[in-house]
Amino acid sequence: MRNDDIRMQYRINERIRVKEVRLVGDNVEQGVYPIQQALAIAEQLQLDLVEISPNAAPPVCRITDYQKFLYQQKKRQKEQKAKSTKIVLKEIRFGPQTDDHDYNFKLKHAKSFLEEGSKVKAYVFFKGRSILFKEQGEVLLLRFANDLEDYGKVESMPVLEGKRMIIMLAPKKKAAPAPAPNKQVTQPKTEQKNAKDEN
Fold this sequence. Notes:
- The protein is of the alpha/beta class and 199 residues long.
- Helices cover 41% and strands 26% of the residues.
- It has two domains: 3-82, Ubiquitin-like (UB roll) (Roll), CATH 3.10.20; 89-171, Translation Initiation Factor IF3, CATH 3.30.110.10.
- Strands 2-1-4-3 form a four-stranded mixed sheet. It has a four-stranded mixed sheet with strand order 5-6-8-7, covered by helices on one side.
- Strand 3 and strand 4 form a beta hairpin.
């Protein structure tokens, strides 16, 4: 969301056109006030009256520094965006009698998908009478999941949906490197200090 969009999202000061508002904020006695009184309090504190919940009855307004308020909203949105990283889903299709060469080729692709953080949806597609080989399809998908256990974890076991048997794999989270212990850094200093004290 651009800065202009955030600005348009909130009404401030004289742009708030209601009879009364519920006031919240620091250094303010919370409660319901006529709009003129709320504006006067904001002016007295040299701050802005910002409508933060227009659909409440009466609307909720915060007395705050508007620029600081916008900055905090932008920061919060960035954090939310970072948390909700898009999960990409890659599909890999097999036939019930996939040969080893084709299997290994698809396995290699799946490894790279999982390493880059994508989920993998692998499925065996049964055409016509090949549905008779559904056990073969299940064995193939379980072998596939087993071969990828270092790269991904099984989210759902093979299930038959219509003409497709599907298995879902999610990337394994990379283990964070262990932080270096701080004790080693501080020990030499204390040893030096003790040596000085002895002298």
